[in-house]
């Protein structure tokens, strides 16, 4: 089925997982086929600010222990079935799809000094949870090519805010970060989220609520091996 961008956006919003952007793939993008037909359009879904978290939190209240990945897979797979699209996720694999590269094709996001993508409006408070691949060539809105806010940020407070100096240009000392999180002084990061991420002045009105920041920090810690030493 051929669907217009406004209706697609509205459906994703109602499902609780906002539409982030899209592009028409070329061979170099590595987008798989949509069923038996070549991919003609890929759109990304995810979060920007706390809107997705509110919907997921309500679902988790009704089903305690519900995992974010499981919720995402259920919601987006249902959308894909309704729309005649194929659903892809960054948390399944192999193969692991290049969501960061696709994001840079879909909207104006750029690598930040912390290594995660920064958005000119949402800052570091956004993410990508899924993609829908269509065999049809959907009409996409004009791309906003706003520049990276990091290019005009002279102070770079994100690099100096970390209490253990885990970040430097082009480098992230994961072991130092994990040791700090596991120690008593790491409570501020465990409960309030990464201090370097919070120090970025861009998108402060879209900062995740504390509950969401704690959730993501716990998930990061579970996924990261214990630090040696």
From TrEMBL:
User: In what residue span(s) does the 4Fe-4S ferredoxin-type domain sit?
Assistant: 140-172
Designated name of the protein: 4Fe-4S ferredoxin-type domain-containing protein
């Amino acid at each position: 089925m051929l669907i217009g961008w406004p209706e697609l956006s509205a459906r994703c919003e109602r499902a609780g997982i906002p539409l982030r952007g899209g592009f028409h793939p070329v061979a170099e993008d590595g987008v798989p086929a949509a069923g038996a037909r070549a991919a003609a359009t890929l759109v990304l879904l995810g979060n920007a600010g706390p809107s997705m978290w509110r919907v997921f939190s309500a679902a988790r209240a009704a089903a305690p222990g519900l995992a974010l990945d499981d919720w995402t897979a259920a919601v987006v797979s249902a959308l894909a079935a309704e729309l005649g699209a194929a659903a892809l996720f960054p948390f399944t694999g192999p193969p692991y799809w290049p969501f960061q590269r696709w994001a840079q094709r879909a909207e104006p996001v750029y690598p930040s000094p912390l290594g995660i993508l920064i958005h000119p409006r949402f800052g570091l408070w956004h993410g990508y949870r899924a993609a829908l691949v269509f065999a049809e060539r959907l009409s996409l809105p004009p791309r906003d090519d706003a520049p990276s806010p990091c290019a005009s940020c002279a102070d770079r407070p994100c690099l100096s805010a970390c209490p253990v100096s885990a970040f430097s240009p082009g480098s992230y000392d994961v072991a130092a970060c994990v040791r700090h999180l596991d120690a008593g002084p790491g409570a501020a990061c465990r409960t309030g989220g990464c201090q370097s991420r919070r120090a970025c002045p861009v998108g402060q009105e879209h900062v995740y609520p504390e509950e969401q920041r704690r959730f993501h920090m716990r998930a990061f810690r579970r996924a990261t091996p214990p630090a040696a030493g």
